[in-house]
Amino acid sequence: MKWKELLSDEIVYSYTVTDHLISLVRDDELDWKPEHGSNWMSMGQLLMHMTDACGSTFEGLISGAWDIREEFPVNELEPRQIFPPSYKLPSVNRVADARKLLANDKKLALKSLKKCSEEDLSRKYAPAPWTRNPMILGQRLLHMIFHLNQHKGQLFYYLKLTGRQVSTCELYGMNCNVYHGREMQENAQNPSSI
Known about the structure:
Layout: H1 3-23, H2 43-50, H3 55-63, H4 79-82, H5 95-114, H6 118-123, H7 137-161, H8 168-171, E1 178-179, E2 182-183
Helix pairs in contact: 1-5, 1-7, 2-5, 2-7, 3-5, 3-7
């Protein structure tokens, strides 16, 4: 499997499962956040954050052009200067808006990926504003999909904490007709289903 196929499959899979989980949120839960601890995003802030997980970041990583904190060279910023506290983060106002934004982010990620060659994905280094660790472009893009999946897991536990009866099937998309990024045909069966 080549980088483009892997990344494309993972985008389709991750966004499909994430959209399903978002569809389980109710508009009246968007202000909810865990009671214990600090610096939690509200449900609405988490949804907003997830809707910008890959698309614009793919664009920045691929082009090398970033639109954040341009008044300072990115490599001179500390991580806490790049990542604001949760109370400063924007929120969605409706679940339907989050789903639309997520679909647009998925389209942008896939469109951006088409601009890359296999050679760029496997050889070109892709600096990122949030880390000084060197990484090739394909691996960095895969990490952005991991980022979305990390927040998908966070949403899964937010749903559990609000009393929703969600299971491993929702977390991994076993009920979304998607397997490894490819939509399954009606008559196809998942050989690993339980």
